[in-house]
Amino acid sequence: MTTGQTFLALGAMALLSTASLSVYRSYNTTYEQIIQSKLGITAVSLASSITEEAMGKAFDKKTDDTTAGSTSALTPVASLGMDVGEYYPDSLNDFDDFNNLNITKVIKDSVFSRGKWIKYGGGTFNIKCKVVYVLPGTPDIAATSQTYNKKLSVQVTCPEMKDTIRSSIIFSYWYF
What we know:
The chain contains one helix and seven strands, in the order H-E-E-E-E-E-E-E. By secondary structure, it is an alpha+beta fold. The protein has one domain.
C-alpha cells in the first residue's frame, strides 16, 4: 500500500466516522423530540380532560337547582373552591370547585426494545387549576366581585417535559 493509498484510506475512515457520528446525533435528537412530543400530547390531554369535566358541572352551587337573578347570589370571590367535605373527583358539583385543585397523575409508558424496558414518554404530571371571576371586556384580569363569567386556568407540568402546558376557558351563566 502506498502513501497515497494510506492517506486515501484514512480520509475515507474520517468521512465514515463523521457520517456515523452525524447519524447518531440525529437519532438522539429525533428520539428526544419524540419523547417531548409525547409528553406534550399527554399534558394537553390531561388539561383538556380537566376542562371538559369542569364544563360539565353547574356554573355555581347556587345555580345547581335554581336561578341566580343577580351576581350577588353567586359564590363570593373569597369562597371559590371546594366546599367542606368535597373532594376530587367524586363530589365536585360546580365549576368553581376546581379552584386551587392540585392533582398529580403518574402515567407509565414504556416499550420493550432490545431485551429491556425503555421509558417512552411517561412521567409524573402535576395539574394546577385556578378559577376566578372575569369581566367580558377584560378576560385576563380577575374581577374583584362576582360576575356571570368564571375563568378556569389549567397548568400542567412534568419534570421530564421542557415546556409547561397552560389552557384556560371561560364559563358564562345565562338565565332567562
